[in-house]
Amino acid sequence: MHMAHDISSSKFSSKCDINFLSDDLLAEIFTRLPFRSTVGCKCASKRWLDLISSPYFITQFVSHQHFLYKSILIFVTPHELMLAFREQSQSYCFSRNNSSLIEDILDKQKSQSLEIPVSFSPDMLLNGSICGCSNGIFLCCDNRYTYGSGYYVYNPLTKQSIPIPPSNSTSNENLFAVGFICNPYYDVHEGKKNVLKNVVAAPYSDERNFRVVIIKSFIIKMFHIEVDVFSSETGSWEHIIMNLPNGFAFAPHWLLSLSYDGSLYFMGRTSIFVFDPYTQQKDTLDYPQEADSMNIMSFGFLGISCGSLRIADIGQNDLRVWELIEKNHWDLLHRIDISTKLPQKFCANYYKRVAGFHPYDGDIVYLHSYTDGVFVCNLRTNKFEAILGYEKTDISPFQLEIKDLLLPSKSSSSIE
């Protein structure tokens, strides 16, 4: 009887082993794990590696994460996250003035299963620091990006990179602000195959059409700025000295710029420096009058939502979001006390900050702290939710639409 009991227990234990589960059940488990845990499971066995690496599982995994307020968190470096979003139709571009449309769409999404036709691997990692992203192409740096050298352009479709030669103006004694913009007038969908192929095959070709900008950083107000612009068409740097009648001083926490509507936006101590590296036009943009510039440059965010430029700050637990209507005219869209909405530990964290906006739903804002992770907040419905598994991780200051990172399908002829 003792032997029979041992045999029975052995059979029961073997059936309780997770490896006894079918691939479908394992996939259901893995899709519900945080990103880091799912990627870590690849190391457990060859079967798990094959399952998690399969295109079907990746689609399911991204689709599941997409339900978290329609956002996707991607590790772009081993320690850095990026907020990414699947492209949506124009009718999904929400604002505070079409709440009934939002409710209709959300109800429809709840009643239908959402499929996302992507084959983008959720564990894509880049080497080095991320300095900018434009039209699906990254500017990276193999050391500290503020040194003004070591830059390279990376194409995630081809997984190849091209180095950018150093500027003659760079020196180790200075810190540099960095900007990157890749052909803002080019439609990725109209000619993606030819242009992205040439990005790798023909360095600095006219079709690639990008600019890298570095500016010697300064924290006191200056009325003239020295700017270096690298052109993909010439393959060389141009040194430019320009006057700013209103003056400008860099925010020490923001030495990376935002690419928007053909220009680069650099956050400063009391204003924003706007520079078009194609036409060399420049301007300064004031912060909202009622905003605290210290909060904005330390814990705020400058980004794009619903096609418009937005800025947010978070002082104590007072979260505010503005939208630019015209030059130096900001409209306050949201103001809310988050102290009753989010965990006390997060609210008490001095280093919490705004991490991004949703590009299509103007009511959704992302908050982040290194110790507590990422929180997504719907300021219309007052729904606040933690996205688990991303504690002790930095978040990139870039928001990227996933459409620009789709891998070519097997039927596509050759993007190499």
UniProtKB/TrEMBL annotation:
Pfam families: b-prop_At3g26010-like (PF24750), F-box (PF00646). Residues 21-57 form the F-box domain. Residues 121-387 form the F-box protein At3g26010-like beta-propeller domain. InterPro entries: At3g26010-like (IPR055290), Beta-prop_At3g26010-like (IPR056592), F-box-like_dom_sf (IPR036047), F-box_dom (IPR001810). Transmembrane segments: none annotated. SUPFAM superfamilies: F-box domain (SSF81383), Tricorn protease N-terminal domain (SSF69304). PANTHER family: EXPRESSED PROTEIN, F-BOX PROTEIN INTERACTION DOMAIN PROTEIN-RELATED. This is F-box protein At5g07610-like. It comes from Cicer arietinum. The lineage of its organism: Eukaryota, Viridiplantae, Streptophyta, Embryophyta, Tracheophyta. The gene is LOC101504200.
